[in-house]
Amino acid sequence: MSGQWWRDAVLYQIYPRSFADSDGDGIGDLPGITARLDHVAQLGADAIWLSPFYPSPQADFGYDISDYESVDPVYGTLDDFDAMVTAAHSRGIRVVIDIVMNHTSDEHPWFLESRSDRTNPKRDWYIWADPAPDGGPPNNWLSAFERCGTAWKLDAATGQYYLHSFTPGQPDLNWRNPDVHAAMHKVWQFWLDRGVDGFRIDVAHRLMKDPQLRDNPPEVAHARRHFSHPVVRQRNLDLPEVHDVLRDLRVVLDGYGDRFALGEVPISDDARLATYFGGDGMQTAFHIAFWEQPWDARAFRRCIDGLVARTRTDALPTYALSTHDISRTVSRYGIEHAPVAAMMMLTLRGVACVYYGEEIGMADAPPALEQDVDGRDGQRTPMQWDATGGFTTGNPWLPLAADQHVVNVAAQADDPGSLLNLYRRLIAYRRGSEDLRRGGYVSLDSPAEVFAYRRGDLLVALNFADHPVAFDVPGDAAGRVEVSTRLDREGVVSMRPLELEACEGVVLRLSVENLPGQNLPGQNLPGQDAAEAAP
Length: 535
Ligand code: GLC
What we know:
alpha/beta; TIM Barrel; binds alpha-D-glucopyranose; eight-stranded parallel beta sheet; about 525 residues; Oligo-1,6-glucosidase, domain 2; Immunoglobulin-like
């Protein structure tokens, strides 16, 4: 486990509620995760990232924390957490945990004190404001959740509104108060001392708000979408002072050695997103636009090149195809495109993050409308371990997808042609490939159906189309197949033209004899990790 391990890591996101249930109550838990770590090890992931497991009234399924230094009894105990960390570390798997710093639960003791009285010492730990002259909310800020409308809730007892950027059960902390900063500092240390290897920082860009609480400009007053903010500046997020908090977090992380922070920063503007990672704050951040693209090779090229062009050469984004917040890959792009999507995510230059179940091609299974508590339940259904489900012996908190009989780990484990085994092959190849781990990235011109790029001495060619495509690759006459989405692709293939089957992706090593002196694009690229080459 050596320095900057996270730079080429594959993370595996676990939604604790839905991964594995050890006690039959129908809800996943930490001992369940521990018992299933061999699946993660066989996949070859470097780390697990756990969505929140803290005590919570579950107004936002754990993203409303009522105690930062404990485990919700439904998921287990702190001892279970420690046992999970030990078991993960013994398999060479690191542990990254989600930390929600923008808001707490409205049942957190800090908030209970804060709302108890206008003169309570913790009043200023949250963002309180007097009503507007007409008695309505203090300004025009909206909750990121469309269903919630205004971001303000009136507390009748004290006659003021509090800010909630998400549900009313998630009051925003006031990070301008040094006591809040100090309290959260202790939380970071609490978990780092327990051996966690990193944090995923929930809505990292939201920590600071305009101190005067001025209205947002009219053009964004109605922009409620959480994951795609307009380019126009807003006064309730992405303020420069946010970076002071993130720098302080980094100092703490660096004090512990090899730990890292991965930011969730839903900002569509590449230049602004780029300020959140690779400097003296968080080491990496999700490339949010990556999971918003339509299934279109040109769209992905534009999306990736756009952020790369605005990113410091030594900075790395994190690529995920799906998360607990968005519809699953297979449901958005179709199962036939899942192999190419996987190859793309695992061969780009950056951290990769696999959402549990993506490796077997799980699809969304939205419950009937009246049972869908959150609107995001469809992508959070229980992991499909075997033909009977294998998630719980009890009654699962969400129904398993109807295709569990065919789409499951057991059915795919020994099938060399399965999606699961493609993920394993790709991850194993990535781990052993200097070009993928440290090489630069440059995209290449290709037919509209194909996204092609160089990574060091490798060429990655991805056919997004449902029909075969052939095209001449400039430079080399031939390349050796390193990994393919097809099992029957081996040996040396011609690049004049390179023929790709429908929905096929290949990683090719460019013919060694053709390389010297040819000055191909992709050699000695600016993105080459110079820092890693240094002694
Ligand atoms: C993040 C989480 C999401 C949550 C929100 C509020 O976007 O990923 O699940 O609802 O923050 O904490």
